[in-house]
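Action item from last week, closing it out:
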Amino acid sequence: MTALNRVPSLMARAGTASALTLAAVGGSIVAPGLTSEAEAATPATKALRIAASKKGSPYKWGATGPNRFDCSGLTLYSFKKAGKKLPRTAAQQYNKTRHISASHRKAGDLVFFHSGSYVYHVGIYAGKGKIWHSPKSGDVVRLQKIWTRSVWYGRVK
């Protein structure tokens, strides 16, 4: 079955995702936060779906959900709902992940933004160079293109 033939069934599974949120990733059609059936059971892809479901939730420093989040609060909340425990801050989360190269990143991996050795932000990789994250005060949880090369990747163990 071609990727285009799967669009109707994926849209039915996507529920509230609109046709405009569908994107081609790795030869299959997915809405940000949705995965192929083969990947659907992994904690990382569940966490990605959960983060995507929080689209539009306001940023609040120190918040861990369910309605407001800071960056690491969103990743903490998403992975907790997916059955994985993460520490509270972006730096602590980086230290608890298996570090991977950009060439090995997969949807559901964590993306850590850094300045030198200081990790200051985290999001969940959604594929195609984009992350789900809670950016900053006055903003909301959203899908955004990675804007810098100063990132490291980590896979939740």
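Closing note: The first strand starts at residue 23 and ends at 25.
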